[in-house]
């Protein structure tokens, strides 16, 4: 089966990127050694559908080291790095992805990856699982389980589970503490600003930044905006989260009230139409918008296009929309995940924890495939703990341990 990639000659450049991140992923390095010894995925085929950049590539190498035959496919066409994909293919992994794939090509790639007939999968956002359950149902007896990376994917899986439609067990990696406390908060918090700053080359200090969604990602994005000197407004639909944002020192108001003030808007809700026609109309000239939620539905591009008389690309990853009244608004990375489509994604040290959870969850799914029910499973507590301990060890940090007396005290009533 032939890989579908842009250019294999880019492999050496991609390999350098993979080597750089691998040097900063000590937890995965420890797991790689363990997997090489124990071969937990011997004779198994694994399809990985994630953002295809260097950290993901290293995860694929770790799974391969565990004995699996591995194929990768993009979870988002704008985050694929062609050199990294080429390096994977040069290293014996199948790949079906290139940067900027059209919708049609993207779905063709998903289908090609599924022709690999995986025993286990890793998904990000649920497109692979959804394709298997809709267009490739013949694979339902073949795929024995998998793991899901993100909040949006888990929402979709839970909906499938409630409808009784989930055909194999999936582990909810996003819901592990070592995921959302670090990846969603610190990872998104840093990499979203990295994406915005490198794309726009503008100052953040003094600007009014509107963050829509104060979940784990939104908290990180707002926290880093404050650190960069921005005035931050938070928009929420959940009154508890809104209280939290207020107590964290941010202004809180509905989007329609925030829209005229914002210089930079960031949506990170997992919901659609968070910024739409009524908001575009009252935004100030020059406002910049971007999205960090999983799908490009948070900023309504259909409305934006219909309000505009012209659209042009003014810098890589910046579209300028000139509205019919002459006002100009800017959209980064076509409204797709700004940190991945206009950046390199989360820092390697953060993804070290997330992908260690992925690797150990996949091992758990492989070891327990015969007994796991076809529902969404939490990552076992021992795996979460193990990743936290390995990370502390890699940092050379030690912590206190409960004495027998303390244990007895905590258990007594
Ligand atoms: N960019 C990245 O690298 C990255 C990383 C992790 C997760 N994600 C994605 O980011 C999104 C958010 O993830 P999370 O973990 O923060 O989820 P979360 O569930 O913790 O938070 C989402 C928040 O958005 C709020 N919300 C929903 N609809 C809203 C609306 N119309 N207006 C304002 N607020 C609204 C919810 O009340 C909630 O507080 C998901 O799509 C997730 O898949 C992206």
Q: What are its keywords?
A:
globular; 16% strand; 413 residues; binds nicotinamide-adenine-dinucleotide; seven-stranded parallel beta sheet; 15 strands
Unreliable segments (pLDDT under 50, ≥5 consecutive)? none
Strand content: 15-25%
Number of separate strands? 15
Instruction: Tell the overall outline.
Output: globular
Main β-sheet: number of strands, strand sense, barrel status? 8 strands, mixed
- Give a list of the ligands: nicotinamide-adenine-dinucleotide
- What structural class do the secondary elements suggest? alpha/beta
Percent in helix: 40-55%
How many distinct helices? 17
Order of the strands making up the biggest sheet: 9-8-7-10-11-14-13-12
Q: What does the radius of gyration come to?
A: 22 Å
Mean of all residue-level pLDDT scores:
97
Q: Quote the distance from N terminus to C terminus.
A: 63 Å
Structural summary, described in words:
The protein is an alpha/beta fold and 413 residues long. 46% of the residues lie in helices and 16% in strands. It has 17 helices and 15 strands. It has an 8-stranded mixed β-sheet. A 7-stranded parallel β-sheet has the order 3-2-1-4-5-6-15, with helices on both faces. Strand 13 (318-323) and strand 14 (328-332) form a beta hairpin. Helix 1 crosses helix 4, helix 2 (26-38) packs parallel to helix 15 and helix 8 (177-200) packs across helix 9 (216-227). It is globular. Residues 150-152, 180, 184, 188, 212-218, 235-238, 241, 268-271, 274, 292-294, 337, 339 line the site of nicotinamide-adenine-dinucleotide.
């Amino acid at each position: 089966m032939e890989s579908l990639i842009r250019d294999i000659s880019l492999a050496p450049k991609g390999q350098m990127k993979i080597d750089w991140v691998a040097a900063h992923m000590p937890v995965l390095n420890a797991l790689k050694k363990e997997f090489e010894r124990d071969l937990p995925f011997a004779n198994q085929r694994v399809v990985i559908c994630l953002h295809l950049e260097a950290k993901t590539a290293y995860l694929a190498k770790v799974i391969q080291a565990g004995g699996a035959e591995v194929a990768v496919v993009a979870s988002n066409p704008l985050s694929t790095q062609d050199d990294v994909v080429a390096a994977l293919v040069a290293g014996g992994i199948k790949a079906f992805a290139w940067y900027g794939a059209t919708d049609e090509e993207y779905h063709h790639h998903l289908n090609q990856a599924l022709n690999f007939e995986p025993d286990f999968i890793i998904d990000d956002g649920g497109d692979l699982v959804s394709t298997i359950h809709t267009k490739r149902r013949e694979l339902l007896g073949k795929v024995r389980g998998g793991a899901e990376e993100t909040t949006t994917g888990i929402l979709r899986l839970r909906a499938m589970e409630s409808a009784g439609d989930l055909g194999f067990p999936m582990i909810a990696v996003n819901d592990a503490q070592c995921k959302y406390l670090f990846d969603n908060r610190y990872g998104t918090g840093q990499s979203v600003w990295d994406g915005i700053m490198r794309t726009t080359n503008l100052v953040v200090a003094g600007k009014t930044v509107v963050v829509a969604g104060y979940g784990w990602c939104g908290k990180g994005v707002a926290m880093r905006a404050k650190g960069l000197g921005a005035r931050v407004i938070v928009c929420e639909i959940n009154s508890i989260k809104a209280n939290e944002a207020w107590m964290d020192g941010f202004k809180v108001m509905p989007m329609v009230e925030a829209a005229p003030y914002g210089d930079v808007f960031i949506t990170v809700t997992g919901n659609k139409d968070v910024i739409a026609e009524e908001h575009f109309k009252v935004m100030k000239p020059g406002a910049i918008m971007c999205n960090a939620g999983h799908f490009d539905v948070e900023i309504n591009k259909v409305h934006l296009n219909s309000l505009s008389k012209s659209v042009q690309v003014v810098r890589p990853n910046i579209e300028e929309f000139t509205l019919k009244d002459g006002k100009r608004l800017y959209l980064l990375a076509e409204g797709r995940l700004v940190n991945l489509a206009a950046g390199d994604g989360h820092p390697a040290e953060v993804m070290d924890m997330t992908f260690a959870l992925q690797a150990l969850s996949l091992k758990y799914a492989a070891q327990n495939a015969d007994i796991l029910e076809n529902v969404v499973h939490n990552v076992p507590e021992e795996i979460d703990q193990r990743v936290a301990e390995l990370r502390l060890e890699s940092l050379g940090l030690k912590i206190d341990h409960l004495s027998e007396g303390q244990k007895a005290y905590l258990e007594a009533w």
